[in-house]
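Lab notebook, design round three. We kept the backbone fixed and only want residue identities now. Task for the bench partner: fill in a sequence for the structure below.
Input structure tokens:
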């Protein structure tokens, strides 16, 4: 039986541990997504109404967290958007559709709540199925001025991005924390070996890929 619900305070550390398990050695040796989750809950950018855990037969197997983001448009105004991530499923249940259930459910919740659009970073092949397209289509780029294939956008309202090209700005809480802070935080969890993996090399290539497509 599958159940999607909000987490309780007494589950915070468990959810962080599950997040850590899901991301460990995936993008870098070790991971920092569990620390991001820890900080996000105390951030003004956190959107608890859209953040959920997923249970299978009463066991928490994954979670999704949302935060505020925005587009600083070329005309100087701000277009408020939202962003999901980290989104995770523990390794033993990955590839079985549970992450898709979380994402589909929360996108519907965000649309019903009246949010204008979602901006994310990730692998296009994972998110095109939900309607995400390259952010370049709408003239949305990072602060360095480049359009990247890993930056994707999903309008939840018609014409949300029309005539509003600009710079994508994610919440600061999603940025990397100092290594010493991460090391100290990791002492609250079971010991895991940090390894260099093929998925990390693929991720490095993916995040630096410039979007040369014409939309």
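Proposed sequence:
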């Amino acid at each position: 039986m599958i159940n999607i619900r909000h987490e309780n305070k007494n589950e915070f550390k468990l959810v962080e541990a599950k997040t850590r398990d899901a991301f460990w050695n995936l993008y870098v040796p070790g991971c920092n997504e569990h620390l991001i989750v820890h900080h996000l809950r105390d951030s003004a950018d956190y959107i608890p109404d859209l953040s959920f855990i997923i249970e299978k037969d009463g066991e928490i197997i994954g979670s999704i967290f949302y935060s505020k983001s925005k587009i600083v448009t070329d005309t100087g105004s701000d277009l408020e958007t939202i962003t999901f991530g980290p989104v995770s499923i523990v390794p033993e249940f990955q590839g079985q559709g549970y992450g898709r259930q979380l994402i589909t459910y929360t996108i519907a919740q965000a649309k019903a709540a009246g949010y204008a659009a979602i901006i994310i970073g990730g692998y296009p092949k994972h998110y095109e199925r939900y309607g995400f397209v390259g952010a370049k289509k709408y003239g949305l780029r990072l602060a360095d001025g480049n359009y990247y294939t890993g930056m994707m956008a999903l309008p939840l309202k018609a014409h949300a991005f029309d005539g509003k090209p600009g710079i994508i700005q994610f919440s600061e809480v999603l940025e990397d924390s100092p290594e010493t802070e991460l090391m100290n935080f990791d002492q609250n969890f079971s010991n895991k070996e940090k390894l260099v993996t093929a998925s990390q090399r693929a991720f490095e290539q993916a995040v630096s890929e410039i979007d040369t497509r014409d939309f």
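Keep this in mind before ordering anything: The beta strands are 2-5, 52-56, 59-73, 78-89, 117-121, 133-134, 140-141, 151-155, 166-169.
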